[in-house]
Every structure is written in structure tokens, then in C-alpha cells.
Amino acid sequence: MNRLELLIYERVKTNPRLKKRIVDAYQRVLRLVPVRTEKSAYPITARRNAFFGFHDKCPWSPDDTMLLGHRFDVPLRMPLPDETIEVGYYAGPGFLEFHPVGRTRAWNWQMGSQLQWVGRSNRIIYNDFTDGAHVAHVVDLEGGQVATLPRPVAAVSPDGAAAVSHSFARLRRCASGYGYANGADPDASLLLPADRRRGLSVLQLETGEGRDLFSVADIAAIQPEPSMQGAYHYFTHPLFSPSGKRFVFFHRWLEHENQTWTRMFSCDTNGANLYLFPTSNIASHLAWRDDRHLLVYGTARPWGSTYRYFLFEDRGDGVEVIGEESFTSDGHPQFSPDGRWLLTDTYPDRFRIQRLILYDLQRNQRHDLAKVKEPFEFDDDLRCDLHPRWNRAGTIICFDSAHPGQRSLCTIALGSLPPGAEPRSL
Length: 426
Hints:
By secondary structure, the chain is mostly beta strands. The chain contains 4 helices and 29 strands.
């Protein structure tokens, strides 16, 4: 953002409706300015009418030979209750051969069906809507049914032993882009339900047994804020630490004026050692760097209302800014397997251009790998964020993009970057 845009943003950032109207009007005028649809330092391979989902999961198999994805033939609109899309994986040279393993009715454009690998195995898990309930299927590479869990999953532990579950029906009411078009929750209409069965749970994948940890009422009662009164509360964005011993989650509440506030908590997998991070009630996207540190875009108490990428210490006082001079807007971060690089993106700018970014954490240098233009119709809950993700070797980047004209699953092959080497950049 330039100085004028930053000034306006600071004035309207707590008024989502006004901010949205200003951004739409601004981009509608500037869409008339011709800009290139794609500019990249590396060749981009696009698989049209396909996408993976969010930035917090690795879509590659443990041996990096298969790439998970959703394939669809539905128009650009919100999903219908009985509408299905394919789930499967790409393999072969260039990851171009699609192998379906099933279909799902529990999906959205932002996170898909929570499709992911089960630990270091070749088993795949994804959410579905079956017999009037959201469930999670575990399948093999041929689509053979291994198990069906009685609840949907949002995050799976690195060893594949456990998963975190929450209510997607509740998300549909307050964050429709992240919920599903079907399913019921008896407490979905309640602002602050106390039933832990529809709160935050941990499932054992081997047995399907669940342990109900917290209701939203439990979490809202911890250091309550005045803005929570009369607001709609929900859980989202759970993510296991690299060791799987703890996980982080967002507690969000939606005020009457459509302002959403966020607190970030971490806890052990049994709910013990609950910790509230000092985020000043603003947090958007996160990534574990290691078992002790979490990167989050948002605010931190020592910095007041300043938005930045902050590296927090789990259960500690340490907070530092990452890329203070390089990042002034939100993105979807993920650390490289060796910890040297931060991979992230940007939302569409005034010309609808999204950027794919590598940040060198050793040299504090930003490298823009690609710029792609998102068509105007990909907006609001239909948007196509890049949500970039590393493969396990740190040599290939996967991201979703609409710059080809359709939502597409894209890859860029970086190759190995020896110590001290820098990637090509724009």
C-alpha cells in the first residue's frame, strides 16, 4: 500500500462494510488500467478448475511424489447443499495426472474439504456430509474406505494420531466462506453456547473417539472484553505444533456492526496449559516456526494498533516483528522446511494484483517471485487467495490462483537453494 492507501486503511480498518465499499469502488476504477495477467521469475504450471485450499497444510505426500487437490465443474458461486466436487491427488511428471479418491459435499472455496495427508502415511483424510452429519473419511490411494470419523476435522497432528474438530455449521452463520452449505448444529443460533460437544474437540483417528475440550462459553469467560457482550462467538484456524504436543486456535466474536475480533490461544492436546497470546484482539493468519514460536499477522500489545507479522513465544513473553520494512499488509505465511525462508502472499492491490513472496529470514530480504492478476468476479467469499505452500523438500511451491481465468492449482519449481544462494525475483 502507498501512503495514501495506508492512511485511509488506518481510518476504516475497524469498519468492514465501509472498507469493503471503498476498496470495491477503487478497484473498479483502476481495473480499466491495462496490466499484465502474469509476471513470474519462474515458470508457473496451472491445473485449471482445481485448487487445494488453505496455507496451513502441506498438500504433498510424505515422499513428495503426490499433490493433493480438489477438482470441480461447478460455476463460480457459493456451494449448494448437495453439490459435490472431486478430491484426489496429482502424480506423474509435473504433477499433471489426477487420481480421484472420492467426492465431497462438505467444502468451500477457501479451505476446500480440509483435505490432508494422515501423518507420514499414504492415507488421505477429508470432510464430507453423510446421513445428515458432517464426518471425516480416511481413504487409501485408490479411494478405499479406511475409516469414517463421526465429526469433521480441521487439523491433523503431524504423526497422524489426532485431529482437532469444531462446528462448521456455526462457521456458516458468521464466516460463510469457511463453513459448509449443509449440516445443522442445535446451538448454531446461540451467541455463546456452553455445550462442549459443539465446541473444540480432539479426535483419536485410530478409534474415532473424541474428547470435548472447550465450549466457546468456556473460552469467552477468560479475561472477557466489553466487545464480547451480545456478540456471536466461534472457533476457527486450529493448527498443531510441529511436534504435535500442542495446538493453537482462534477464538473470534462478531459484533453487530460486522466487526470481528480475534484472540489466539494454545494448549496441550488434552486441553491443559491453556495460554492466551498478547495479540490485542487482532490476528488473521498464522504459522508455527518451531514448537516454541508462532508467526501471526495482526497486532501485539507492545506495538499498539500497528499491524505486522509478529513472532510470538508460546507460553512466554517474547514478541518480535518479522520483516518490519517489507510487509505492510496481510498474507498467508508458511515457513520453509529448513526454517530459512518465509513464504507468503498478498491480497489484491489497487490493480487486483496478488504477489507471491519469499522472505529471507537470515538476510532480512524480500524476494517477489510472481505477480498475478485476480479477475474482479473472484471477490468476497468467492475470492481466490494464493495460500502458498511448500513441498516437504523445500524445492517446489504450490498455490491457488485465478489468473488463468479459472480457479487453478499452480506450482513453481524453485529447485534447491544452497546456503547463501538467492532465488530469482522480479
